[in-house]
Amino acid sequence: MMLTSSPLLFAQSSNSADASAASSKDPVENKSWLKGITTNGYVSLSYTYNTNDPKPRLNQFRVFDFNDEKPQLDVAQLVIQRLINKPNQFGFLFDLTAGSGQPPVTAAYGLFRDTYTGTGGHIDIPQMYVSYIAPLEKGLRFDFGKFVTHMGYESIPGYDGYNNNFSQSFLFGYGMPFTHTGLRMTYPFSNRISAIFTVNNGWDDFERVNDGYTVGGQLSVATSQTTHLVFNFLHGPERPHDNSDQTNDWEIIATWTPGFHLSFALDGLYGHQDNGVAPGQEAIWRDLAGYVRFYFTHRFSLAFRGEVFRDGGGVRTGTDQTLREYTLTPSYDLPAKFSRLNPHLKRADGTFVIRADFRGDFSDHATFHTVGNSWTDQQLTAAVNLIYQF
After folding, report:
1. Per residue in 55-73, pLDDT tens?
2. Burial of 115 (0-12, 13-18, 19+ CB in 10 A)
3. pTM (two decimals)
């Protein structure tokens, strides 16, 4: 699992002459540039059971796995892109998703989410941007368009990676945005230090909702071959038609991988919004999440996540509360030998993953639906999830 959908991860697709070849009229060179375009995809299916038997059948405070006792196509994703990693190269990425789980909560305002009602559809374009690496020292990369946020240890699951746990943390769902629209700049100072700087429309805003801009940044430091530190921030006005009240997100992520079989991670976040609760009353949210994953074999693993999310003022979840959750996820990677599964399927570069997800959510207030239209302070769920990547 990746820390973020980071623009620092590129694959070699052509030589450095491709950028100039793209504008050439030589059909052979143009064909070489086109050969660098790849197609990838991701499909996730799931079923979740909630012991509270809520009415309506919805899991509270969940991001993608919000449907209870209903088979769900979480998302089907198609990505068309040209990956680049050298100066003077041009690339692009177009990411189309559809499904009953992901698009309604991640769609950006002004694209597939109505700016006034806040409702989203079942189709989305999480990312669409063009890229260029300028020949400045080690190469300064520019991405212009719509892209996923650099915040968070967890990320939106997709062809390029998925999280250790099937269900998403409160931190991921309520502590930070999903996407931005604007300009992202990335620079690798060395093999161990890199930085990101963004100027964008704001949190999940395709269209601007005020006259201000949001700035963000990331400093990534590999302190050794096994430890990694990431510092993230976002700052800007996020409220519609309000240019003065500022929203801030500050985050520190630490990872430690002592060996192939074992990994640890810690994600701490502090969020703040001016006058977020009421005039003169700030909204503050805090989260601390810990992650552990152990591989019993190269295919079977067990992941655990525990977190505490404090929503001071109730701006993020709708209630002034402290949420806790504990999640256990066994996972098994199926062999990618399609000839044994289906003799008509010739591709051998895909991956099947099947996993379960056992989770307990707890609040210091009765904020979870239960049978008889009543409320309780806890929510227990079990889920099964099937993933296909290519």
Report:
1. 888 999 998 898 899 899 9
2. middle
3. 0.86
